[in-house]
Amino acid sequence: MGWAKQKGKQPENRLYLTRMVPLPLDHYLPLLKPPMLAGTKIWNSCVWESREARKNNEKYPTESELKSRFKHYGSWKSLHSQSAQAVVEEYFEAVRSYIKHRENGHEEMRPPGLKNKNLLRTITWKRQGFEYREGTITLKLSRKLNDIRVPLPEGADSLKLPDGTVLVGTPIEVKVKAVYRKRKIAGLEIHVTWDFGVVPLIAGNRVSAYDLNTALIARASTTGGQQLIVCRELLSLIQYRNKTIAEFQQKISRLKEGSRKWKALLKAKRKELKKLERRIKQLTNAVTKLMAEIDAAENIAVSVLGDLGDLRRKARTNDKNKKASQKINQLPYAQIEQQHKYKSLLKQICPDKWSEKYSSQTCCICGTRNKSFRVHRGLWRCRSCGAIMHADLNGANGILKNYLIGHCDMKQLFPLKSPEVYRWDKRWNRFVKVSPRAAA
Ligand SMILES: [Zn+2]
User: Where would one find the signal peptide in this protein (predicted)?
Assistant: First the structure.
């Protein structure tokens, strides 16, 4: 059973988790193959209808038009109506994403195309498409077909929190995916997204704050704890990914659209990017895990992430080219934010965000604001109170102070402990504490 990402928008402090269970192939493949093939057929019908419209110079069909047109198809009737509709919705989602990429200058992007008819499509069951009772999910197909029963392992619907509270989840969406290895079906997986409701949080007044920078995450907390997490590996992966994209793009642009070489290159690009994305995700997961562990060890009640809105990204540099390169060579903020949120909730810590505005140019000790006190990227030297510290820790302490008392020139509220430094250890594939000198 694995953890996966949260789904969609949600109200504050509601915990959604997707858990995966592998399904025995010999039993489930015969049951699930027909609906999954039907899914591929519906997808291909969407593609076909759009192509016909284009060929005949007609208006493209809309989502609801296609849904009603397909209603009487045999493939539509081998799925639950919500599952069949979901395929059409996914097609239009892919079209929207294609248009967006095209608008952003990705000329090599192609509209969603036909899939091999033997491909087993991932099928989604929405609320009315399944039932859950006593550990068993019953997946519904169309009314005339038999349901598919999937018993889940014990405890699949429950979650034990650090204080001993056990939350029982309600399933809100189910997906069944085929896993391919070397073009052969290697397995089937059921992904159930559970709504565990609002998490009861730790009562307390301890707060921590994080400042995300180019290659460093700085942490400060009301216990006086200060940490620097060196994320150079993560950053270099991101830079490498951007370089890879640019290189592929350049090669692809020289080839004829639709040619064999062009197709092969696109495929190679997708494969390479998938690999890199996976490694990036592994590292962001490790970073956010460490963040939650440090918070839990200090009994933090609220964990605040410095919110670097577009404002700050722009304010960071005046040079236009530099701006562009900086924006893409940054830590994956959205990914870290999403993981920070659910990992904090799992430890019953309230996740929050707060603006980073001015925190990097204000002395956290005395409250004097002066950009030039940031001597260079890593050093803060306050000429007003004489404080010398790591500039990013000054930033994190600044966010913490702003979160607690707002912008003002009040002095530091509590004594600061000496900083701890964590860096990625390749041998162990995790972050380890090192001597502070290593951060320099
Ligand atoms: Zn100062």
Answer: none
